[in-house]
Amino acid sequence: MVELRKSTWETLGGLPIPAFYAETESSERPGQPPYTRGIHEQMYRSRLWTMRQYAGFSSAKETNERFRLLLDRGQKGLSVAFDLPTQLGLDADDPLSEGEVGKVGVSISCLQDMRDLFAEIPLDKVSTSMTINAPAMILLAMYCVVAEEQGVSIQEISGTIQNDILKEYIARGTYVFPPQHSMRLITDIFEYCSQHIPKWNTISISGYHIREAGSTAVQELAFTLSNALAYVDSACEKGLDVDSFAPRLSFFFNCHNDFLEEISKFRAARRLWHDLMVERYAPSHPRSTQLRFHTQVAGVSLTAQQPYNNISRVTIQALAAVCGGTQSLHTNSFDEALGLPTEESATIALRTQQIIAEESGVADVVDPFAGSYHIEALTDEIYKQARQEIDKIESMGGSLKAIEQGYQQQEIHTTAYRYFNEIERGSRRIVGINYGTMDEYIQIKPMKLNPEVAKNQHERLAQLRKNRDASKIQEVLNSITNSAQKGDNLFPLVLEAVRLEATLGEIMKAMKDEFGTYSAPSGF
């Protein structure tokens, strides 16, 4: 019996609300395949979505302060933004990191940084999402060691690493290794976590960045699920049973301005993933066919002009994500087009979710737009068009082959070019940009970064290298390179290297010595 959040369910005016509506006894119900209406029978009646605000800037200690502030104000999960050097597997004192340390996220180069990031945060009581891809294995290993030092078994930690390298080649650009080697690292993580870190979501297959780069809703869905199929194929080719890892696959979608299209996209996504998994892999575990996803509202929709308008945009987008059945949600801060969010704007973003959850009534009924002629038709059309696009990619040899030909990149470029031409011509109106414009003086003062963070990181790393056992570290780094060549699972060796205080950049270099690096085609 599912425990519900309330004993009675009624509207503000006292009218009774059933959990969901079904036209006939045979109508699809929430919590049943193909999950168009949601993956749980009671959805938010039993548990609200996780309010997981994305944060990370400057030093680990400063980011830790923001994490604890958000947790104190009601956030239920953490989501870590890493700076560009960390995303590319570079230490803060690497010459290529100059000018970027702590800029677009938190700087993490060594185990002590990770300790500082989660100081006074009990890792057995909070789930953590990390937006990290090429060096995902190393950051997860650091997280595991910090948990162990807190006395928490890695069997008990929960969270997600993004670990989605294919969309990096398509839309985002923070790849390091050639595609085949990147896929090998991902399946190594699948294998190790299925045996040792069972509550961890081993990948967050991301459409968010594909949409931010300029795709349509249909392209976002099709390219994301095509990437997901490539990951499943790769793991199965490694010899893993689909039911050993598929229940821990998760997805990450964008939620843009077209309210009804976005609701329909999420409904279509669940149905399409279920159908693809059943047809291709015939899994026996029911969770292997369930599409679970995190949503972030559209950063690309935020405007620097009239920035308070962004509160309205974020609210509309967040409401669509909830009506579409998201499992967790990040709401952007209104000042993010100007700089890093301040404490005030981050609080407003969190309160937006809380107001939707507690005051709007949409969390009281499952799949509230089901049965709408428009929603049902849009759901079917998005399903159909996305499936046609997936079939086209499969005819090219699958997502990886299509990426190597630049197909997805070219399609996104074309769509983005058309969209911005519409704005330039005025046929697509954006308030504050080409409609409802006015002279304004923006008084918002974005948060400023600590200018000393790079210097402090340099000093910390110099001290670390002086005090550790260099010979033991070199030995394990050599083992990583040798195992990369032989095809052994690299996770245990990466864990050992982290425990010995090897840095992020050093472990990545040990892999580069065997894998090399890569430059992807642009699509042009």
Blueprint of the fold:
Blueprint: E1 50-55, H1 60-72, E2 77-80, H2 84-87, H3 111-117, E3 127-130, H4 136-149, E4 159-161, H5 166-172, H6 179-196, E5 200-201, E6 203-206, H7 208-212, H8 217-237, H9 242-245, E7 249-255, H10 259-281, E8 293-297, H11 309-323, E9 328-330, H12 343-359, H13 373-395, H14 399-404, H15 407-425, H16 453-467, H17 470-486, H18 491-499, H19 504-515
Parallel strand pairs: 1-2, 1-9, 2-3, 3-4, 4-5, 6-7, 7-8, 8-9
Helix pairs in contact: 1-3, 4-18, 8-10, 8-13, 10-11, 10-13, 11-12, 17-18, 17-19
Write a brief structural summary.
This protein is an alpha/beta fold and 524 residues long.
Number of strands: 9
| General form | globular
Radius of gyration (Å) = 23 Å
Helical amount = 40-55%
Order of helices and strands: EHEHHEHEHHEEHHHEHEHEHHHHHHHH
Oligomer: single chain
β content, as a range?
Answer: 5-15%
Largest sheet: 9 strands, parallel
Helix/strand/pairing category = alpha/beta
What is the number of helical segments per DSSP (H or I, 4+ residues)?
19
Strand order of the largest sheet: 5-4-3-2-1-9-8-7-6
Unreliable spans are none
User: Terminal Cα separation, in Å?
Assistant: 55 Å
Mean of residue pLDDT values: 95
Question: Could you please describe the fold and organization of this structure?
Answer:
This protein has 524 residues and is α/β, with parallel strands linked by helices. 48% of the residues lie in helices and 7% in strands. It has 19 helices and nine strands. It has helices spanning 60-72, 84-87, 111-117, 136-149, 166-172, 179-196, 208-212, 217-237, 242-245, 259-281, 309-323, 343-359, 373-395, 399-404, 407-425, 453-467, 470-486, 491-499, 504-515; strands at 50-55, 77-80, 127-130, 159-161, 200-201, 203-206, 249-255, 293-297, 328-330. The protein has a nine-stranded parallel beta sheet with strand order 5-4-3-2-1-9-8-7-6. Strand 7, helix 10 and strand 8 (293-297) form a beta-alpha-beta unit. It is globular and about 70 Å long.
